[in-house]
Amino acid sequence: MELLTAIDTRSSAVRLTQPGPTPEHLARILDAAAHAPDHGRLRPWQFIVLDGELREKFSFAAAAAKRARLPTMSEEQFAAEREKITRSPSIVVVGCSVRRLQTKIPEIEQVMAAAAAAQNLFLAAHDLGYGVMWKTGAAAYDPAVKATVGLAADDHIVAIMHLGTRLK
Fold this sequence. Notes:
- The structure is a single chain.
- By secondary structure, the chain is α+β, with helices and mostly antiparallel strands.
- The chain has 6 helices and 5 strands, in the order αβαβααβαβαβ.
- It is globular, with a radius of gyration of 16 Å.
């Protein structure tokens, strides 16, 4: 796919199903993401692929964060919140670990570099024929959710990227 065609035809998927990216495609997608513009060559982004136990821990932490905001959440709503997160075939969290002391590059520029990496990820997945949903929501700002994927409370979750086959 030509670059401008990829940009012009890119849109967020409404629903995804199996299959998700193959291991080879996922590696290519993450490699493309890492070629984002990056003032100071700090590479502040992190790409955390949620599989297995980490996926379960992340879905639990995100649902628990919502329950903390909505204490009247029922067990059924809690389970539905967890399921909503895990139903996508593949999930990649794009984090940003800001270097505050080691550089003169402002925090905002580091976060923008991570966002550019997320956009590269999105376009690469689209180019390979996958549907993508770029999500954040309140969970992305919750320190306990961040900790689940190895980020510090003052780091950022820039995107929770859901990848799979677009449902027509």
